[in-house]
Each structure stands twice: as structure tokens, then as C-alpha cells.
Amino acid sequence: MSGALLVAGTTSDAGKSMVVAGLCRLLARGGVRVAPFKAQNMSNNSAVTVDGGEIGRAQAMQARAAGLAPHTRFNPILLKPGSDRTSQLVLRGRVAGSVAAGDYFTHRDRLAAVVADELASLRAEFDVVICEGAGSPAEINLRATDLANMGLARAAHVPVILVGDIDRGGLLAHLHGTVAVLEPADQALIAGFVVNKFRGDPALLEPGLRQLHTLTGRPTYGVIPFHDGIWLDTEDSVSVRPGGLVGPPQPPRGEQTLTVAAIRLPRISNSTDVEALACEPGVDVRWVADASDLAAADVVVIPGSKATVSDLAWLTERGLAEAIRMHAARGRAVLGVCGGFQMLCRRIDDSVESRAGTVAGLGLLAADIVFDREKTLRRWDTPLYGFEIHHGRVVGNAEQDWLGVGIRRGAVYGTHWHGLLDNDAVRRAWLTEVAGAAGRTGFVVADDIDVASRRDAQLDLMADLLAEHLDTDAVLDLLAHGPPSRPTMRTALDRPTG
User: Fold this and answer.
1) Catalytic: which of 24, 131, 279, 338?
2) Active site residue 131
3) Contacts by 250-253 with C-beta closer than 8 Å and gap 24+?
4) The CATH number of the domain where 428 resides is what?
5) Of 71, 390, 416, 418, which one is the catalytic site residue?
6) Residues 192-216: pLDDT tens digits?
7) Is 71 among the residues known to form the active site?
8) What pLDDT, in 10s, does the model give residues 361-398?
9) Is the pTM of this model over 0.90?
């Protein structure tokens, strides 16, 4: 078998990443040498690769699904937004400056060559490459600079499956409209549709899918049911909403639960760090953005940030900074990860990210942070798993060492390590400490939760759902023969006005 396929979506968070991961796992289980590929990702959730670079976390997860170690070639272009208009450009795993939305066109040809080179290399090495689109191909205002959706599909002549999340409503219009607004040459590559997160009786949906086929000339390859067991490795910030739970709550093993308030920063990065806590029975993790939400919390977590100084100012403006200090003053636990760790320190000297110079931190840890122009990228797999992605370095530290990967003062903890809580022994020991600090004597830390196995089980679950509900023969045919002949629809640009 040989071939490539692009999984595009009607919106962000439509399920592209999980469908790609499920296909990678399904094919790998069948003995196919498969690799994931996302030409360009825009996300502050990232991971360090075995070749010492940085890629989107979803591509690291998809590599795991395919039985591969994460590598920069799976995501050659990563944009990490630091504001509404500028992003850090990570090219082949390394920082290559910053780009503004308005001048991205000037980089297009150079970046397109990188994408073409990496995809060609993967297709030469692997039997199959499953590509993931970015956002939606219906963003026709961005078509001229598109490298990840129809720009990629057209350049590489690969078929496209369009995935939509029916749980949001309006999906049939989204699917029809996405095809309708595309140029005819782009339309020709849209092979068919996949409905994601369906609840209810599929028979009720069937008449709509038949009409969609009549209107577009394209079949629906599958209707994937909603499953609340799939929630780990969420990449898109769209799904990280204040007030929302991180994963379905697990019943406690003891008489009490432990409540974790995770701060939903405006420029949050690696929000997935708190997912390991949500795997624990009796640990309820909720995203919060208001000071009042901290009053009943046993633990506060400040996650990473792509705009540390700006997000620190946001904490102050919303009263969260003072609420965090009060929480710590009561002896309850506060954990800062990466940017959140930097905020807990006395001072931050940043002439790189925000160029704000020296600003005061929360002062809960006796250490200072100085930003380096060179980004620190490190990955460990033994004896502990974790990785670092940051410009800030710790200086003037007068605090107690924490596990050799961070510092602590009483119940205030800080680390630059992402993924630290995925280490089961570390997480259990830490939960025992913070439950004691909160006076939760009736909380029992489970001794049988294996987060790595939970992540693998979700990949297998997604593969199982695709095996049962997706027309896999049709997908294999696309991989073997490329884009099928599909009719051209009239676009909005073709229609007369008046």
C-alpha cells in the first residue's frame, strides 16, 4: 500500500487530530508503515521531539498512535501565537523569528518549499502518510497563503476527507458550504465527509446525508458516535473553556474529593499538563478565570503561557494574583508549570518575549527569572518523563529543590517540566502532599492509575470507533488510487447577484 490522505475540518476542534490519530493507529495495527503530517500548525500546545526540536502536541500524539517517536518532520511549521496579530515561527523544530498575520504572504514560497520537501520525504519512506489540515479550508480569505489545507492537497494531489462536529449543530450546512465556497480545482479533491461526535439514532440523520450526497455528489464515509472516553491530549484552545471540567470526573476511592482550579490564561500553552490529574479518581479539575473560583479550590495550577508577562498582568487585573497569594497563605497548594512557574517567582526580566524589561512576579517563590534569546528545548524519557520549552531561566534561587526538576516553598511548587505529572509515582506522591495541605484526610490516592496506558487506550478506542463506523475500504481505496472524480459545485463567486 502507498498513498496519502488529508483530513480537513469544517472548524477548529472538529475532530481532525483524533481522526488522524485513529487512522494512524488503525493502519499501524494492520502492519502498515504510517506517519502523521501537519504542514502548519498554530498552537501553543507543543512537545519536544527526539531530534531536539519542537512540534505541535497533536502530532506527537499521532506519532505515538503510529508507533513512532515524535520528530520535527511530522510538523515542519509551528506558529505559536503570542498576541492576536503575531506568532513565533518554529521552522523544522527551531525558532526562526516571529511573523505578523499581515506579512505572512511574504514567507509563503519559502515555507511551501519546506512543506513539499518534508512531505515528499515521508511519502518516500512510509507506506502511508495521513495529513491533518488546519482550521478550515472554507477560510477562503487565507487561501493564497494556505499551506495546510487545499494548498497542500492541490500541491501534492491528495484526496481530502472533510470532518465536521455535529455536536455543535448546523453540520450539514457546514459540510455543504465548505465545499461550495472552494475553487473548482480545490472542490475536485474533496472526496467525501465524516460526521463526528454523533449522539442518537443514526437513522434520523440518514435522510440528511442522502440529500447532502445529492447536493454535493459526495458520500459520507462514516458517522462516528460521541464517546466521553476520548478527551486526553486536547490541543485546541477552543475546547479549554472557563468553567469546564478537564475530562469526566472519576468517582473517589475515599470519602472526599480533591478540587483543582486550573487557571485558563489568555495565552495558555500546554494545557494538557493538567490532564493527568483528571485521570485520578476523586480529583475534579476545572478551568477557571475568576478570583471567586479559587475560594473553594484545594489546589491551584497555573499552566504554561506563550505570553508570560502579559498573562501575569491579566492575573492582576482580574484579581486572580491576589486570590492565588491568599490561597497560598492558607497553606494550600499552588503549582506553576513553565510560564506559570515563572509568574510565581519574585521578578521576571524579559527583553525577549514581551520586551517589558523587569516586572514583579507573584513573589511566592524566592527566585528570579531572566529570559534568554535562545529557547531551551529538552526531553527526558528516563528515569522520569518530561520536556522543557522556555526562554526563561531561573537565577538567584533560594528555595528547596523539588525532585531535581523544580523548586518549592512549603506548598508552593514550580517546574519548567511539561508532562511531569504523567509520571505516576511523582503524581501520587504530590497528590498525597497537597491533599494533606488542604486537610482532605478522607481523600485516597489511587495506586493503579497509569496515565501512559490511558493515553494509549484512547488511541485504541479511536481506532476501534473508526473500524466500526468508518467505511475503511473506501479510505483504503483513496490511499491506493488518489482523488476520485467528483462533480464541481457552483461557488458563491459563480452565482449571479440581484
Assistant:
1) 338
2) no
3) 250/278, 250/279, 250/280, 250/281, 250/282, 250/283, 251/281, 251/282, 252/281, 252/282, 252/443, 252/444, 253/281, 253/282, 253/444, 253/445, 253/446
4) 3.40.50.880
5) 418
6) 999 999 998 999 999 999 999 999 9
7) no
8) 999 999 999 999 999 999 999 999 999 999 999 999 99
9) yes
